Amino acid sequence: MRLSQFHLRTEKETPAEAEIVSHKLMLKAGMIRKLAAGLYTWSPLGLRVLRKVEAVVREEMDRAGAIEMAMPSVQPKELWEETGRWAKFGPQLLKIRDRKEQEYCFTPTAEEAVTDFFRQEFSSYKQLPVNLYQITTKFRDEIRPRFGVMRAREFLMKDAYSFHIDEDSLRVEYRNMYDAYSRIFTRLGLKFRAVAADTGAIGGSASHEFQVLADSGEDALAYSDASDFAANVELAEAVAPGPRAAAGEPLREVATPTQKTCEDVAALLGIPLARTVKSVAVMGTGDDGAPQFTLALVRGDHVVNEIKLAKLPGLADYRLASEAEILEYLGCEPGFLGPLQPRRPIRVIADRTVAAMADFVVGANKPGFHLAGVNWGRDLPEPEVADIRNVVEGDPSPDGKGVLRMARGIEVGHVFALGRKYSEAMHCSVLDAAGKAVAPAMGCYGIGVSRIVAAAIEQNHDAAGIVWPPAMAPWRVVVCVINPKNDPAVTAAAEALYAELNAAGLDAALDDRGLRPGAMFADIELIGIPHRVVVSARGLDAGTFEYRARTASESEQLDRAALLEKLRA
Amino acid sequence: MRLSQFHLRTEKETPAEAEIVSHKLMLKAGMIRKLAAGLYTWSPLGLRVLRKVEAVVREEMDRAGAIEMAMPSVQPKELWEETGRWAKFGPQLLKIRDRKEQEYCFTPTAEEAVTDFFRQEFSSYKQLPVNLYQITTKFRDEIRPRFGVMRAREFLMKDAYSFHIDEDSLRVEYRNMYDAYSRIFTRLGLKFRAVAADTGAIGGSASHEFQVLADSGEDALAYSDASDFAANVELAEAVAPGPRAAAGEPLREVATPTQKTCEDVAALLGIPLARTVKSVAVMGTGDDGAPQFTLALVRGDHVVNEIKLAKLPGLADYRLASEAEILEYLGCEPGFLGPLQPRRPIRVIADRTVAAMADFVVGANKPGFHLAGVNWGRDLPEPEVADIRNVVEGDPSPDGKGVLRMARGIEVGHVFALGRKYSEAMHCSVLDAAGKAVAPAMGCYGIGVSRIVAAAIEQNHDAAGIVWPPAMAPWRVVVCVINPKNDPAVTAAAEALYAELNAAGLDAALDDRGLRPGAMFADIELIGIPHRVVVSARGLDAGTFEYRARTASESEQLDRAALLEKLRA
Question: Where is the signal peptide (chains A, B) (predicted)?
Answer without folding.
Answer: none
